Records
---
Amino acid sequence: MYLQHLGFKALATTSAGVAFSRGAPDTVSAVPRDAMLAHIRDVVAATSLPVNADFLAGYADEPEGVAANVALCAATGVAGLSIEDGTGNAAAPLYDAELAVERIRAARRAIDATGTRVLLTARCEGWLVGVPNPLRVALARLPAYAEAGADCLYAPGVTDPDEIAAIVREVAPKPVNVLVSAPSKVLTVARLTDLGVRRVSVGSALSRVAWGAFIRAAGSILATGAFDAFAEAAPFARLDGVFAKRS
């Protein structure tokens, strides 16, 4: 809700952020499906802005399971959702390419069957899971995901402008999403726009910024016995002024 107050035009959930809020690590199975659906539903209810759901790998390996779960996610009222090709298995970190395509095709059919206009984003996790030559993997997989029915393509972890531009060219005219989750003098909104990127995500970054402030403040109390870190706290009036609008 506060992001809407600031003027952002669209929002997204973060699987890592909700996992951290539950005291769980950022892993594929950290937040059960029904708990994730409840979280997504709460976010949708808190704002009038379109919300994209980080729906991990769809909570299933086989296409049929992905389809059933995507239908449940679409029913939360989201404007979009993403399905990734990471398995959570270090020995085989990405689904086989053919299976990965079938999973996206199943998600597309499930969305179409709901009669909604939920936007489907297909993710290639090559950079995040550390596969060799992730650009080659992304350039092979993302066009296949687009052909399978993905509306938007996403390779979280790519940061090199030339590689981003290559992805944009390869999947055109479908839009590309880019993740920016660390400080960068190169990747600004303006620069990404020039590269042809149509959507920018910050992933868990805002959650981790909040955790960073919490960790520093709590650590300062233990180390110094003083409460100086509270000087950075947001004023009650500012928060109440925004959140009272929901009452």
---
Amino acid sequence: MAAEIFDIVILNGRPAAGKSEIIDYLKQVPVDERRRRFHIGEFEEFDDFPILWERFEDDDIWERLGRPRLISETHFEYEGRRLPGYVFKDRMFWHFLIERLCSDYAKRLRDRPDYHARHTAIFEFARGAEHGGFAAAYEHLSPDVLARANAIYIDVTWEESLRKNRRRYNPEKPDSILEHALEDKKLEFLYRDSDWSAFSAGDAEYLQVQGVRIPYAVFENMPEKTDRPDVLGAHLEEVCASLWSRRQRLG
């Protein structure tokens, strides 16, 4: 059974590129069909957004108790201006998040050695060049994750990321996976510049990380496909087929 499904799929892309929409779509597909079409079994999400947002909320509470914020600031400096928006005091926290996801995953394997007989772990994160980019993030993946990892990059331009970020914005639910968004200037500050092209430039099929070859494929989301379930599903099936072939060639 394990040979039919990916152990780990890493979903990457700019904010609002379509990562959460793809996961939401997969949740609606019956597991037998999901295994057949996408090589994804029962799945669990390892997403760094809930972790980082909880840290912002923790700092808000800590500040209300009369103490200085521990991890985050409520403003950032950009283009000579002080602008509102949560940012981390130390950029290393972006790498902490990756290692935290790996730690959570390691506990699944510890408690359920047969985890991948039925389960695909889906890691999800965005990274901009400002905080090290994808190249730096992948350097913090654990050996267990790297050995099992397969990556899908959802490709949109910076302008499309900005447009979709604005579209999904719901100020009443800043903690929502599908409705959270960043202020325009914060999005520009953190994510306008992406290193994915440089990170993946060495090989059209495999990323090279810590001496490990990681199969990857690109989900082209321009024009937008993640707002049309039938189109999303058809393209994702093509992407996963390519990714599965690349994984199989590794042996």
